[in-house]
Amino acid sequence: MPPSYSTTITTISDTVRFLKCLDHPGEKLKLFCDTHDTACCTVCHLGQHKQCTVLYIPEVAKNYKTGPEYIQLTGDLKKAQQLAAKTSNEIEEIIKKVVKLKTEETATLEEYRVELKKYVDKRIDGLTSELKQIHDKDVVLLNEQLIKSKKIESNIAIKQSKLEAFEETPHDLFTESKHTRNIVQQLQVDLAGITAKTEYQVFSVKKDPLMLSVLENEAGLATIELKTVRTMARMCILFMYLLSVHMYAHRYVANYIL
Q1: Tell me, what's the pLDDT at 257?
Q2: Residue 212, CB half-sphere, CA atoms under 13 Å: how many?
Q3: For residues 59 and 47, what is the distance between their CA atoms, to the nearest angstrom?
Q4: In this predicted structure, what is the pLDDT of residue 167?
Q5: Among 44, 60, 157, 194, which residue carries the largest CB count within 10 Å?
């Protein structure tokens, strides 16, 4: 049963002071219920504590200050205070470690970013260079065939001009036509050779499926691994001390002042 008293102290003599009962205003907590381990007033005694073992507080509290219970209580409080201070220091040190860890791991991510960028830049540069080589090779070969084709085109135009020039002189036209016929046959063979050699590479960039899956995955590239480190085992001890103190605090004799 929780104690029913206020922190307001009423002096009824020069040596004895009692707390006020919260359940019965105006009544003072002069009695101690040993059954329920709590202070009570005379009205409480006649009510819910009627069947209990009730003692007069000034009598039971006379030597309480020098008794083992109070000595144990003050000792526990002192130990709890020391443990709390030590725990606070440990927490402050852990906070420093956490801040340092965040700084270090952030630096690790930045280094990783640089490594990834370096890899990507190197790979893209390599692919770009490969594309350029394919392009340059094809352009060179095509230009060679283009020169040959243009030369044949020019030769054909010359032959056509000559034939047109000899159209008024049949014997010259006949002779030039025979000569041109042989040349045209050779030019046709040459054109067929040019056509056969005219080829190029159709190139396209095929993205790496694995890399695409990484890019599409929000958790790709890296993850943050968590591991809880419990270094506050002493908190359990502190809790036990505080629990002990809490139990003592429910005893009125711990709050009674001589």
Answers
A1: 36
A2: 4
A3: 22
A4: 87
A5: 44
